[in-house]
Structures are given as structure tokens and as C-alpha cells.
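During the reporting period the student researcher (J.K.) took over the structure-prediction task from the postdoctoral fellow and processed the backlog of single-chain submissions. One of the processed entries is reproduced below for the supervisory committee.
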Amino acid sequence: MFERPQSGNQAVLVHIDFHDSGSQENLDEFKELTGSAGATVVELVCGKRQKPDPRYFIGTGKLEEIRQIAADGKADLVIFNHTLSPGQERNLEQHLQCRVLDRTGLILDIFAQRAQTFEGKLQVELAQLRHLSTRLVRGWTHLERQKGGIGLRGPGETQLETDRRLIGDRIKSLNRRLDRVCQQRELRRKARRKSSVRTLSLVGYTNTGKSTLFNQLTGAGVYAADQLFATLDPTLRRLTLPAIGEVILADTVGFVRHLPHGLVAAFRATLEETVEADLLLHVIDAHDEGRHDCIDQVNAVLTEIGADAIPQIEVMNKIDLLEDTQPHVERAEDGRIRRVWLSAREDRGLDLLQHAIAECLLPEGQAVDAMTPAVSGAPQTCQLRLSLDAARLRDRLFEWKVVRHESTNEAGEWLVDIDISPGLLDYLGKQKGCTINK
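J.K. obtained the following C-alpha cells:
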């Protein structure tokens, strides 16, 4: 029995290459995760094995190599780019005499740093406790049953049993509080459904630019950074779309390879916004060479939470990092929109995305007849005459950022010069109080 070592920021990273491709983790992503957690890398240790060792996960030779590197570099933390069993983690700590963290523990630590809202903190604590509950055995030196005698009689529990009971009680309490959060979210969703407000959800791999795109579309100003799991707390904002009107856009937590099931369960309140959405915007880093694997990982999580049947548009972001790639819309063989290529950081192609969303949300016949030109047609300049009862339509024109100049005539009507696509111009011509001046 031993006391678990104290943790620090000086870390030795361990990455083992197994022949089983299903257990492979990305090394570059591992380094990004470590940097996001705030650790300083002393050295990276790599190796190859046919299969994990049941006791130490690695062989005794590699174990001694890591122990020597940690001692020479004064490292107080060893991080594995793999999932360790509680027994393996415990045996490694006892032999290395420093804290050992696996991939799941590393992700949980990042989540704990990023959570800001009350709900986010509850979800992170729940995931941490579920992870900790499997790692209590032999983590203390005082697990012996309390002795009898005057002043020594106790409840008859070992310290381990007491810890398990306290953790179990806390998990039940967190689940009850998160259930109330789910009920509150469901009430808000019912109100939106009654008012026929559509809901969109941004999904995708972590660090693909979801929050940057969210800010550009809504002006929300949520935290966005070039780091993994910059967003943990869900954010909802209203967005006005051509021919649709107001919708709700939700920014959600990013996914990652082999996302632990405990995290998926703990973040159910957040992920419900995805399950209940009318349309998913699957944001993809177009510059990432491993994007196809990331797409598969995201779709696997969507299947796990029951959101795989929801229509989605693939948003190929970061085209500013590609050569000779302009914003454009890619369609499937049946004519439906499949992908939109854009750059959220440079605000290029967002108009195409808004029109694409509108086409997907409109009834099928209307989308094909009215909105297809709006996505593919070249903008043209014209003037609109808006009556006083078309004030809401005037506001939308400014929200769409198509207004070049505005004036009024003697009757008090608005004369608005705009640059707009043919399909959307046809839509405006059908609106009450709007006349197109030839």
C-alpha cells in the first residue's frame, strides 16, 4: 500500500504503437491535448508492442527507461496516450514513484479547466467522480478496518467503503441536479417548438473552428482559441436566415477520438441540443490531412447519442489555409447540398452557408425552386421600395449585410440599394410592402 504521488506540470509522454489499428491514437493530437492541459513536456517516449502488458501496459524494459527519464528530468507526471486500467495505473505509479495519467484522465483535466457555467461544472464533476470511483483500491495507506476499544470504535467501514459511499452519494446528487437542468432545457425546447423556431447545432471534431463560425454568424463573442476543447459550455443564440427568419444556433462541445463513454453520459444535457436539432452543421477542418478519420469519429458519436438520422451539412472550414480554394457549394448527385466550403476566420463564404441552411430547412419543393439560385447565382444590384409596414423586412436586409445605401422618398418609404442574388431577390419581390424598382 502506498500514498498516491502528488501531480505537477513536468510530464513525460508515452505513446505505444500497437499492431491493432483500432487502438491507435494520433500522436500530434496527444501533444495538443497535453499542451491544452498546461503540461510542460520533458520528453516523449515511443515504443511498439504486439499487445498491452496486463500489469504495466508496457514491458519492463520500457518501464525502467521511463523511470530513468522521469528521474533525470525531474518529471512529476507520466501521461499515457492510451486508456489504462485502474490496476495498471496503480502499478505504474508504485514503480515510477510519480503520478500517472491516462488519456481519459488528461481529457477530464482539460474539461475541468475549461468549464465556466454551473451546468458545465456539474457535468465535469460527474465525469471525474465516475472515473475516480474505479481507482480507489489501494490508493490509501489507511484502508484497515477501524479497531474496537475506547475511542477507536467507528461505523465498521473501511476507508475504501466510506469513500465509495460518499462518491456514490455525490454522483446521485449531481444526477438529480442535472436532471433538473435537462427538464429546464426541455421546457425551453417545447416553447421553441410551439413558436415554430427551428434549431441548428454545430457539431464536429475539437479545434475545427466551430466557435469562430458561431461568432461570425451570431456576433456572440464566445471564447474561441486554437486549442483542443476551447468550448465546453453550450451557447445558444438567435440567427436570422434568408427566407426562413429566426432560428436558434447552438455551439456544442467538440468530439475527439475514442471519447470516453463517461463523458458522453455526463454531458447528456449538452448533447440533447444536438439530438433535438432540425439540422446539424458538421464543421470540418479542410486543411487537416486526417479529416476523414475525424469525420468518422464524429459520426460514431452522433450514432451513439441517437443523432445519426438528423440531416447535416458538412462545413469545410479553414479554406484560407488551402491554395486556390474559393468558397463554393458542393452538391450530391440528387441535387441536395452536401458541403459548403468557407473560411470562418476570414468571413468568406458565410453567405453561401446561410442560403444553404435556408434551402435545407425550407419545404423540398420551395427549396429547389426558390433557393437554388440564391446559392449559386451571381449577386446583382437593384433598389427596393419598402413601405412603412415592411420595417421587419428592412431589418433583415441589414442583418443579411446586403444594403449599399438607404434613403427615403416624400411618402416616407425607404429606398434601399442592395447587392443580392437572383433567387433571394425573387423571394423579396413576393413579400408584402416590398417593390422592386426597375
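The committee noted the following: Confidence is low (pLDDT under 50) at residues 138-144, 365-377.
J.K. will present the remaining backlog at the next meeting.
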